[in-house]
Amino acid sequence: MPKKKNGAENKANKPNATEKACKRRLRGGVDPMVGAATQIKPGEVRNPGGRPKKKPITDAYAALLSNPAKADELAKAMFDQAVAGNVQAARELREGIEGKALQAVRLDGELGISTAEERKAKMVELLRRAATRLEGMSVPERTQ
User: Fold this and answer.
1) SS3 letters across the chain
2) pTM for this one?
3) Is 113 inside any structural domain?
4) Tally of domains in the chain
5) pLDDT, tens digit, 9 for 90 and up, residues 106-134
6) Considering the domain boundaries, does residue 89 fall inside one?
């Protein structure tokens, strides 16, 4: 009759979870424990700068225009086109000298409010209406 083994001996003979995972293989025969060593740890940044910003056309233009004679030729050609009526060339020249034109934004409307107290009361009313809508209640009647 075989001897009974105590709990410590049973545990020593049984494989633990790590050993089971090592025996189990992923698709293609890859060991699942290999990936744990290469995972990104919390707070670790692998590529802090990101992909380098490439601007090949700008770099090519800068290389061509580093020669002052070429830059003068380009400016003269753009000027000649603008004088001949090319609107795009004229816009390019203006934006190069003055920068892009600012666009005016006009905000107007009538709230019928003239004093600071009326503005404050209107804002409180609007906030109360929004709160009641969010709570799913009906909008209370407007008090005047």
Assistant:
1) CCCCCCHHHHHHHCCCHHHHHHHCCCCCCCCCCHHHHHCCCCCCCCCCCCCCCCCHHHHHHHHHHCCHHHHHHHHHHHHHHHHCCCHHHHHHHHHHHHCCCCCCCCCCCCCCCCCHHHHHHHHHHHHHHHHHHHHCCCCCCCCC
2) 0.35
3) no
4) 1
5) 776 666 667 788 888 888 998 999 888 88
6) yes
